Structure formats: structure tokens, C-alpha cells
Amino acid sequence: MHLPAIQAPSRRRTQARSGRARGSRPGPGDRALPRLQLPRLQLPRLLLPLLLLALLLGGCRRSASSSASGASARSFYLWRGELTLDARDRSTLEALKVKRLYLRVFDVTWSARRKRPDQTPSLRITGTPEDWVELVPVVFITPDVFRDLGPGRLPWLAGHLLDQIAAVLGPTRFRRTRELQIDCDWYPTIRGPYFGFLRELSRQAAARAGRRLVLSATLRLHQLADRDAAGMPPTDRVTLMLYSLTPVRRFGTQNALLDPGVVEAYLRRAGPYPLPVDVALGLFSWAAHFNADRELLGLIREVRAADLDGLAGLQKEKGAVYRVTGETRLGPHKLLVGDRLRLDEQRLEDVLTVARMLRARLRQLGLRPPEHPILFHYDPEVIRRFTGGRPLELRAVYQALEE
Question: Reduced to 3 DSSP states, what percent helix, strand and coil does the chain have, rounded to the nearest 5?
Fold first, then answer.
């Protein structure tokens, strides 16, 4: 989910450039009622099991029908520094029937110099959005935190995160919180400390809240397809991230954000997952900026094909690659002759294709639609550019996962 921060590599011709570049008892006064003596009924020996079976089947039917009637809680990630929702935002979210916002409260990275975890500035919350939408705090943690932090410090890390989450949300919001989510793209060698941290976080969160909080973790497609190798996080549920699927640094990547063919290949290998699986789909795009040596210099955010087609100094090559033929600028970004841009764009038709593909695979596996279909992320400008100024078209994406 986290958008990667790319640092420009050292290169021979960067000297002239600068700035290049996730039952109660009766109470007093209660009168005791006389006990009624009822006749004892003699039921046939086989009748009681049959009655129990009928009740069980009836309960299953009610559960299934309630799920089919649209019990999903449509959601958005909010991945920016401040949560401010005005009347127009509320109108859009209510029209889309959004019930949840997953808030990135802060990131945790590893400081090699200080040899300890570092925390990014925290989310600022203004207004009272929880009056009409549920808030789920999310913490993004880079894998190197679990690679370099000693196992003895995992309880400290869990406690520190809970302190910081409570500080961001405030006491009232923290008491209302029902779920916490951790976003970390773990791999096999850090699985032990990461899973240990999740267990400790769950234990401490329950102790502080005086009740058990739902703990969720993000899941990538390769972790879903290769569950034996990746392991399964000790959480209550997972959120499958269906974007940022292939290496962004590799120049030959077709589309690092969303490639339906890649999704289909992973889903064919995926079997039933023991935990409830929510699903997140992306709305954003970027241009990956490479130098003449095909080294990644950075990512230019929220670029669409319309921004590149017809831009002076750019020539379209094979696929979604553009070559810089004359020094030019894309917004504040300077492009030099020989540089290349690869457009990694998530289009509405491709997102719908992936959503339907996933729903079809879930049916094959006998699994229900995701309880929380999530879009990444809520930003009016991102949504405007993704939908061409028609935000209610996002209903189709939610519906594709719910049908």
C-alpha cells in the first residue's frame, strides 16, 4: 500500500541536476413471582435432534441471506497527512455508501544511523468524521524494522505504537476503535519477528482496551498464492492488496501498479485462505522516471496518459514508455534528453476486470465476497482523474466485488 520512496542512484550526469527523484438477580423491591408448574412433555427420541437441525439450517440461511443482501462495509484508505472532510466529501462518501476509512496514522522505518525505529509525522485529524463513518488506524512498517530490531524489543515496539496511535486518535476515538491494521510487506526471513510482534500487539491492545480488538494485516498476492512459504499472520483477518504488483525499478516491467495478467496468474495458484480476506484496489497512477542508463530516478505522482500524449519533447515508444527527445518539464520535474518515462496507470476498465476476476475465483473456492471492499485512496483529485470527473462510477468497482 505504501507508495515507495525512491532515491536517485549515483550517476555520471546527475551533477547538473538537483532534487530528482505508504441473568441478573432480582433487585431490592422486586416481587418474586410464583413458580408455574408446567406439565413435562414427552418428546419422541428422534424429534429433538431434528428440531436442532432445523434451527441450525434456518440460522445458516439467515446468515447467508444477510450476506447476500449487501452486508459489506464499503471502505476507503486515506493516505495523506491530514484528515479533513468537508460537506462535499461527506456527500460523495455517503452517495458511495462508504462506511469505513482506513487511516494511515504514521509510518515506522529503520534508522541505520541511530540503529532504532524512526516514525514519520503523524496524521492530523480535524472535525468529527467518526460521527458518520468508522475509523480504522493503519501503521505502515518497513520490513527492515523486523530485520534489524532485536526480538527482545518487540514488546517495546508494540507498546510504543499503541501509545502513538492513542495520541493521534485521542482518548475518545481510541476507545471507540474496533480494529487496528498493520501494513508490512514481510518475507520469509523476517516472518518470525514480524508474527511475534503481531501477537504482542494483539495482547497489549486487548489489555489496554479491556476488550479484544480486531487485528488485521495487509497481504500481497504472492503471499496469498504461496501460503506455505510465506506463512499466515496471527491476525483476525487480512486485506489483500491488488496493486503495486511487480518491481517498479525494473525498466522492462509492463505496469508496476496493475497488470490483469499477473493477477490472473497468482489467483490460479491461490487456494482457500483460513482467515477472512478483505480486498483493496488502487485508483492512483504514476510515471516511473528512468535515466538514459535505465536506472530509476523517481516516481512522478498522479500522471495519466493525457498528461504525456502531446507533451513537447516526448516521443511514445513501445507500450507505455515515452522517450525524452528534448529537454522539458513535467510539472516541477525536469526531464533530460535520453530519459524515459514508463506510465504505470490504473484505469477504471482494468480495475473492474481485476475485481470481477477475483470475485469469480472466490466463487470457485466457495468463499464469500469480501466483507470490506476498500479503494486506495480517498483524495478528490485522484478520484476525479481516475473517473474522469464522475466519482459515482466507483459504485461499479464496489459492486463488482459484492455481486
Answer: 35, 20, 40
Neighbours of 206 (CB within 10 A): 13
Q: Which of these three, 345, 361, 380, is where a domain ends?
A: 345
Q: Is 308 within 8 Å of 325 (Cβ atoms)?
A: no
Residue 370: which domain range?
A: 71-284+346-402
Q: Is the entire prediction scored with pTM above 0.70?
A: yes
Q: What is the CATH number of the domain that holds 185?
A: 3.20.20.80
Quote the CA–CA distance of 163 and 360 in Å, as a whole number.
41
Please tell me what DSSP assigns to residue 236: S
pLDDT of residue 219: 98
Helix (H) or strand (E) holding 99: strand 98-111
| Same domain (yes/no): 152, 249 | yes
Whether the Cβ atoms of residue 375 and residue 387 lie closer than 8 Å to each other: no
Which of 345, 372, 390 corresponds to the end of one domain?
345
pLDDT digits (tens, 9 = 90+) for 329-343: 999 999 999 999 999
Q: Which residues of the chain carry a pLDDT beneath 50? A: 5-70
**Is there a domain that residue 25 lies in?**
no
- Report how far residue 245's alpha carbon sits from residue 193's, in angstroms, rounded to the nearest whole number: 24
Torsion angle in degrees (nearest 10) through CA of 188, 190, 196, 201: -110
At 141 the pLDDT is 98
Between the alpha carbon of residue 178 and those of residues 137, 181, 199, 206, 210, the distances in Å are: 10, 10, 17, 10, 12
Assess if residue 168 is contained within a domain: yes
For the chain, the straight-line distance linking the first and the last C-alpha, in angstroms and rounded, comes to: 25
Cβ within 8 Å of residue 396, ≥6 positions away: 348, 352
| SS3 sequence of 46-88 | CHHHHHHHHHHHHHHHHHHHHHHCCCCCEEEEECCCEECCCHH
Q: Are 397 and 352 in contact (CB under 8 A)?
A: yes
Is the Cα torsion angle 1, 116, 161, 200 positive or negative in sign?
positive
245 and 357 belong to one structural domain: yes
Does residue 123 sit within a domain? Answer: yes
Helix (H) / strand (E) element for 241: namely strand 237-241
What pLDDT shows up at residue 27? 37
